[in-house]
Each structure stands twice: as structure tokens, then as C-alpha cells.
Write a structure and sequence with these properties.
- Helices cover 27% and strands 25% of the residues.
- The protein is of the alpha/beta class.
- The strands form three sheets. It has a seven-stranded mixed β-sheet with strand order 7-6-5-8-9-12-11, sandwiched between helices.
- α2 crosses α3.
- It is globular, with a radius of gyration of 22 Å.
- The protein starts with a strand and ends with a strand.
Length: 389
């Protein structure tokens, strides 16, 4: 029987929830079985058998955020999201406060704030230098309103008591050592300084289904927070909750459930109580069952055809492939980077060189129609094309 572990958020005892077989290209760090645990005290669900040293290899060697249209800082959807962040800060009385955005990526929010006339210094920090804007002398001069620095949430490049407002948009779900993240934040913030944290609102995953096991398929999301778990973690590190907001926010491909919590650095933070549910653990259990049913359908389809072709190595397919035992399939993807890789010694093919066959499986949920149109233009028969849901 799997041993319990200590919940990283509230320090109560957390129970083993399930094992989840992931996979990846070549020697991916995700060629492993994740041990998922859940905490009944605060609702957190998390992977217990991975660490930040291993995850760092993913961001250095496998991560392709820098080329993903999902992070296009000029897209209308992302601009609308920036406006939402701005309005949240303004409502909290923090307009024109110096901002340090940890995990800034392409720096879209800070650059947008600057264009809107934000009257304060903005600093972006990220470990992924491929994503950050190309540094220029003007960008990083002393009088520039927006600067970018290499660094990470586990080792902030700032002096103690030097920052006024730290923002973490979609960062904490990626980092195992949440204690170090919040310790670093507490150290560099001035007294009465603020942290604004946004994570996917895991308690509302079921309200916005994207596809089978979509949220569990994002392998680098090793934490799925409830409002209570995030609140408990913040309070343990000297932060008092100031505001909490749940909303559906846009991306270029879909809307997602957002959980944002603003907290202040204080001497004796008061506790905050949120309604506790089993939504996250139930979502994981339901996702695993749905994934097994999806695999069974593909295995049955393979029995009806001589070969399956799977188009699109989206992150979710790497939860499904380990379950496709004993059937013949070939993999293809339009990404030139992925075509240079292998999946368990199997080559990733260019879709344009494949002779259309008897059954084509379109794997990505978010780009299925685009891929179907491309497949039809290459000669695949409409009746031979199947989309995963």
C-alpha cells in the first residue's frame, strides 16, 4: 500500500490518489509513472515523486513555450487577459505600483502595462531566456520602465525587502518546492508588500471540459490547487489573503478557469476559510477512467484497420500512448522539431510524406479542425478521419 505523504500546502497528511503513466519523446523526464496524492484537509492534488531539479531539465531541453502561439502577446485574447489583471490590481488599490513579474515569459503583460501608461517600474524575471524579449540596451537601462532579468522563483535576483509587488501568473503549478517559492517572495518583499498569484482553478475543471483528461495531460502541472490550499500555503509563510477572484479567462484557443489570490506580507496573518470540495480528486479519478475508455476505443479501431496513424503530438497524447499496447500505429507531427525526435525508438514522421491509409487519429483537442482540413487536402478520406474528444 502506498504511504501517505505530508501535504506541501497545509502540512496535513495527504493520501495516495492514483498512479498515472506519462511518456515523452526521446529521453524525456516524463517517461515515468507519476504518484498523485490528494489532501482532504485543503483539497490540494499533487505529484509526490518529482522534484525541481528534474523539472528544470524539461524547461531547458524539452519546453517549447517560446514558439507556441498560445503565448502570443499580441493576440486579442491575451490582451483581454492583461486588461483583467490590470483591473484586478486597480480594484485592490495597486495601480501604478512597481511590479516584478516572476515567470514573465515573453513579457507581454508588462509591455502592455507600459503602453497603457502604467506609472511605475516593471521588471520581468524568467528562467527561460528563449521566451523573454530580446534584451536591448534601452530595455535594460536605468531609466527604462520595463526591464527583464534571468532568474527564477526559487532564487529571485533581488535584495531583501526591495520589492513592492510580486506577480506569479501560472507559475506555482509548475514548481514542486512551494515553500522555497514563498520563502523567496517573503524575503525580497518590503513590509506590507504584496504577492498576486494566478493558477488554474482546479476546483472548476469540470465546468470547462476541453477534452479527455486535458488538465491532467499537462505533465508539467504538478500541482492542482484549491483556493484553500493556496491560502494555507501563503499564510504559513507570512501572507494574509486580501482578495480572491475566480473567473473564466481567454486564451487564443479556449477559455480556462482562473483562480487569483492577492496576499499581503504581514506579521501575524489571519486564516481564511474557503468552501472545501472533493472536485479536484474527483476530476483526476474521472479523467483516468475516461482516458482508459479512450484507449479502448482506439485499440478496437486498430483491430478494424491494418494500421493507425496518429497526427499531432500534443501533450495529452503522452498520457494515452502508454495505454496503446499491442497495436500498430505510426506517429506524425507538422513540427520540424518533433520530427527530429523519436517516441520509444519510433520516428516522428512528416504528415506530408505519409501515404493516406485506412484510419487517421487527430490527437490535439485544440487544433483538431485545422489538422482535419490539412489531412483532407493531403488525400485522407473524410470517413477515415477520427478526432479525439
Amino acid at each position: 500500500m502506498m504511504k501517505d505523504s505530508t501535504c506541501p500546502a497545509c502540512l496535513a497528511s495527504a493520501q495516495h490518489l492514483t498512479d498515472w503513466d506519462y511518456s515523452g519523446l526521446d529521453d524525456s523526464i516524463f517517461n515515468y509513472t507519476a504518484k498523485w496524492h490528494s489532501c482532504k484537509h485543503c483539497g490540494l492534488v499533487y505529484v509526490s515523486n518529482i522534484n525541481d531539479q528534474i523539472l528544470a531539465r524539461f524547461y531547458a531541453n524539452e519546453c517549447s513555450y517560446f514558439e507556441n502561439d498560445h503565448f502570443d502577446i499580441t493576440s486579442p485574447e491575451n490582451v483581454a487577459k492583461y486588461q483583467h489583471y490590470h483591473d484586478f490590481l486597480s480594484k485592490a488599490g495597486l495601480e501604478n505600483t512597481p511590479i516584478t513579474d516572476i515567470g514573465c515569459g515573453r513579457g507581454g503583460f508588462l509591455q502592455w502595462l507600459n503602453k497603457q501608461g502604467w506609472q511605475a517600474k516593471c521588471i520581468g524575471v524568467d528562467v527561460d531566456i528563449k521566451s523573454m524579449p530580446v534584451s536591448s540596451q534601452q530595455q535594460n537601462s536605468d531609466d527604462s520602465q520595463v526591464n527583464f532579468l534571468k532568474g527564477g522563483a526559487l532564487a529571485l535576483p533581488f535584495d531583501a525587502n526591495s520589492q513592492q509587488l510580486l506577480t506569479y501568473f501560472h507559475v506555482l503549478e509548475h514548481i514542486r518546492d512551494v515553500d522555497s517559492v514563498l520563502n523567496n517572495a517573503q524575503k525580497v518583499l518590503k513590509d506590507q508588500g504584496y504577492v498576486l498569484i494566478e493558477v488554474p482553478d482546479a476546483e472548476n475543471y469540470m465546468q470547462q471540459p476541453v477534452g479527455t483528461a486535458f488538465w491532467m495531460g499537462i505533465r508539467e502541472h504538478i500541482y492542482h490547487y484549491s483556493a484553500q490550499s493556496l491560502s494555507d500555503a501563503l499564510r504559513r509563510h507570512g501572507f494574509e489573503i486580501v482578495a480572491c477572484q475566480r473567473a473564466m479567462l481567454p486564451t487564443p484557443e479556449f477559455e480556462y478557469p482562473s483562480l487569483m489570490i492577492l496576499a499581503k506580507k504581514v506579521e501575524n496573518p489571519s486564516p481564511t476559510a474557503f468552501e472545501l470540495t472533493d472536485n479536484i480528486a474527483n476530476y483526476v479519478t474521472a479523467s483516468k477512467l475516461a482516458l482508459e475508455e479512450q484507449a479502448e476505443k482506439l485499440i478496437n479501431l486498430a483491430l478494424q484497420h491494418s494500421q493507425l496513424t496518429i497526427w499531432g503530438l500534443s501533450t495529452q497524447i503522452f498520457s494515452l500512448l502508454p495505454k496503446l499496447k499491442g497495436i500498430d500505429y505510426r506517429l506524425c507531427d507538422a513540427s520540424k522539431q518533433k520530427q527530429q525526435s523519436h517516441y520509444q525508438q519510433q520516428s516522428i514522421l512528416d504528415p506530408t510524406v505519409i501515404q493516406p491509409g485506412s484510419a487517421l487519429i487527430i490527437a490535439p483537442y485544440l487544433h483538431a479542425e485545422k489538422i482535419k482540413n490539412a489531412a483532407l487536402s493531403l488525400g485522407w478520406a473524410p470517413q477515415s478521419v477520427y478526432k479525439l474528444h
